[in-house]
Amino acid sequence: MPGAADAPPFVVLGVSAGISAYKAVEVCRRLVDAGVHVAPVLTERATRFVGKATFDALGSEPTQIGLWDEASPIPHTRLGQRADLVVVAPATADLLARYAGGFADDLLTATLVATAAPVVVCPAMHTEMWEHPSVQHNLAVLSSRGVTVIPPEEGRLAGGDVGPGRLADPALIVERVLDLLGRPVGVGSPGAAAPATGDLAGIRVVVSAGGTREPIDPVRFITNRSSGKQGHALAEAAARRGAQVVLVTASSRPVGPGVVVVPVETAADMEAAVLSRSEGADVVIMAAAVADFRPKVVHGSKLHKTDGVPELILEPTPDILFELGRRRRQGQVLVGFAAETDRVFERARAKLVGKGVDLMVANDVAAEGVGFDHDTNEVTILGADGSTTEVPLRGKNAVADAILDRVCALLCAR
Ligand code: CTP
Q1: What is the CATH number of the domain that holds 316?
Q2: Is residue 93 part of a domain?
Q3: 206: β partners
Q4: pLDDT of amino acid 73
Q5: Degrees, nearest 5: CA angle 108-109-115
Q6: Domain holding 135: CATH number?
Q7: Residue 85 C-alpha to ligand 1 middle, in angstroms?
Q8: pLDDT (tens digit per residue) in 130-160
Q9: Distance, CA 355 to ligand 1 centroid (Å)?
């Protein structure tokens, strides 16, 4: 029986025996920061990867492992009945098989079988295991029963191999859990949840900001003059207006309350972070100055003058906004930025059409007090419907509100 309406949501955090079990600590901490009551349940073998004491300290109640630890002989029914949601991170191939098969031979699987609450599984394993037909079959079985699967990311795995299998970003897992619980996603700053009122209440907004850094070697990189101020102002303004905001940023500027911050460095990091979050978003605003080119070869150790002048061969980065336009789902609002120094409107209009967005915010960064690193900005918002809205020189917060006014109008019209 889930908790009373005003009680914090009760979430069972299941942890099975994978290398990425250490990342479940971050999931636990972020959920507790967001006001969730977290009951950690580890499998016996998970304790070989991460300690019970850590979850005892960070969770909302003592960690449980065995079916026989509690005075009560039926802890799984207590947990299963009380849960508003059960999330398993990481979910190993073995755990998925046992859950899909209906096995209940330890506290975690018994809880999974005993609950009627929504269940989220976050698989993590080596690529070969992830691609094995038995794992994919078990996931299909679980999905067909209504279990939410947060797929693993591609990246470096234990042992140095690269491929799909890495546990999804803990921030993303927490966002999805809060989303399923119907809670505001304002976990970036503990205790500062997004307001439930405002003209963007309930709207999920993803904003990108800052100039990406493309490494040459461990101490050098290519970047641009973007400060991230306009993107951060947009994220903060959207949160003030009640939206659930995720800010994917390459800038280290501070961020106001109610915004989930996902720090990134390169265009590739930004692409992964934005695309994975855009699926569930109502609005995506690409205010970031994404580097257009990156060094083809990134040197693993510092280059020295004595090695001679290095030849820098560049390759294009992925066009994130173009990809968002291609994948866009019905009703989603897409906003791009075009910072130009000449033929401003012509270039901005071409980008609006070419990238398939609803609004393109054009600014002439050669003008006085406009664009990079200034606290003020002057923009023209071009609409796919042929409209233009001029926003004269003013603070970046006011410019952010003017852009969000246009976004709101589009959302209302859909
Ligand atoms: N953008 C992106 N991915 C890239 C480059 C740009 O998502 N690799 C987005 C920016 O965040 C911005 C919009 O596309 O919202 C326009 O960016 P801009 O740099 O002005 O345009 P480019 O596509 O890079 O074209 P050009 O090099 O001709 O200026």
Answers
A1: 3.40.50.10300
A2: yes
A3: 246, 284
A4: 65
A5: 90
A6: 3.40.50.1950
A7: 40
A8: 999 999 999 999 988 999 999 898 877 777 7
A9: 9
